[in-house]
Amino acid sequence: MAAETTDLDDLRVRAERWLADDPDPADREELRAVLDGLPGTAADLADRFAGPLTFGTAGLRGPLRAGPNGMNLAVVTQAAAGLVRWLAAQGGEGPLVIGYDARRGSRAFAGRTAQVATGAGRPALLLPGPLPTPVLAFAVRQLGAVAGVMVTASHNPPQDNGYKVYLGAQLGGELGAGAQIVPPADAGIEAAIRAVGPLAEVPLGPAGQVLGDDLVTAYVERAAAVVDPTGPRDLKVAYTPLHGVGGAVLTAAFARAGFGVPGVVPEQAEPDPAFPTVSFPNPEEPGAVDLLVALADRTGADLAVANDPDADRCAVAVRDAGSWRMLRGDEVGALLADHLMRRGVTGLYATTIVSSALLRAMAAARGLPYDETLTGFKWIVRAGGGREPLAYGYEEALGYCVAPEHVRDKDGITAALTVAELAAGLKAEGRTLLDRLDELAAEFGVHHTEQLSVRVEDLRVIADSMARIRAATPATLLGQPVTEASDLLPDADVVILRTGAARVVIRPSGTEPKLKAYLEVVEPVTGGDVPAARQRARAAVTELRNEIAAALGL
């Protein structure tokens, strides 16, 4: 009991110290209420002070709440101060460009970042409103900025927010110009953040310069130029920005490219930080695109497209035997790669270790360079180490980069345009995206991918499962010997298993409390019977899922 009392006293002292330095009156009031509720609120207080949000390669991301283990004005002030000091220490010159989405707190966090930058003597350029993440990534390159900050939690739950950092060419180099940070920059920024003293001593300058709409116009013009201006345009598209910030930019890009303006799900057309029509604002989640599919049905659309809330991801649904089917990220990834290859786009084609092996087979057959990386676009855009210019990159989590010189990150708007270009071209020939997928399967075999994804409340479940698969690695999968068992520690918490016809990649999610196992079975097509090969592949993946779940103790 005495030890518990001492721990609580220590926690109270830490909280009082934080409260005295917190610049936000609302957060101070929130934290004071928690303190006044002790000892009944001890668990809540302990969680808020379990540790600071760590600045990693995805920046910051966490729940909106007072205290060091949350996203709030104090944490953002500290992060911005550390970032601008790190930029100065590296000799970085030029403005900091700042973007934000429509989540709660995003505008205030962006404004505070600008004040910290100007207070340190660095120009701050704010995007002219809540805009997609790809617009910020574009702006870093377009404006020659030393770095960029995007305040967004992407497709996380409504109660979250986040803070992503991009570097310009001066500090990011040619491959990382306008790309998310990678080590050792993340560790350097984290160290600079921890070295920030009392927030009251962080100088705050003017609000910074709000950029004009001409920047957004430039993004839209460059995005529209990704597709062939002479190609077919007869295509009816249904679209949802999923309560996010992609709607105005995507529809403008479609119009600029000569497509009809997509029909937009009215209930989800405007940004809304509560995301009221979905249980989880991620187009991959069950039910998230139900309203989109309903709109596509009502309007007789040829194609249904969804962005996630910050519009860096793109989901695609197609009509299949009278109903609508969401294409997997690997299917869209292969379709886009094949389309670019057929258009004669040369250079490096890249994906990640958790994506399908189909892109590797396509590149090999067509004599194009290929590389695969760890998960995340910060690695994809640096694929190949610069030996070949990047032509295209994708990851199975609905992220696609079809124009690396435009946006050196995933971009759900240019991806949607390119899918529309492909679909319109096929429609003009009386065919569909599914027909093209069948052609690829006939040529390279059915590459059927699925995911075993388990969301947890207790992160120890993930650690235990990873320890279990390392301690008792299966010797066989689907009755075939495991020919490769790779453990990527200490570089990455990833285990890879391969047989002659199957592959499994197991890792914790980098942004959510999830354990993920990426499953793939390659089934040859015999006698031209693609449907039979697909059926065999689906059955094999179901069996593989059960084997991996057992091996993980799930």
TrEMBL record:
Residues 454-523 form the Alpha-D-phosphohexomutase C-terminal domain. Residues 54-168, 218-317, 329-441 form the Alpha-D-phosphohexomutase alpha/beta/alpha domain. GO terms for molecular function: phosphomannomutase activity. Keywords: Isomerase, Magnesium, Metal-binding, Phosphoprotein. Coiled coil: none annotated. The keyword Ribosomal protein does not apply. Its EC number is 5.4.2.8. InterPro entries: A-D-PHexomutase_a/b/a-I, A-D-PHexomutase_a/b/a-I/II/III, A-D-PHexomutase_a/b/a-II, A-D-PHexomutase_a/b/a-III, A-D-PHexomutase_C, A-D-PHexomutase_C_sf, A-D-PHexomutase_CS, Alpha-D-phosphohexomutase_SF. SUPFAM superfamilies: Phosphoglucomutase, C-terminal domain, Phosphoglucomutase, first 3 domains. Its cofactor is Mg(2+). Belongs to the phosphohexose mutase family. This is Phosphomannomutase. It comes from Micromonospora echinospora (Micromonospora purpurea). The lineage of its organism: Bacteria, Bacillati, Actinomycetota, Actinomycetes, Micromonosporales.
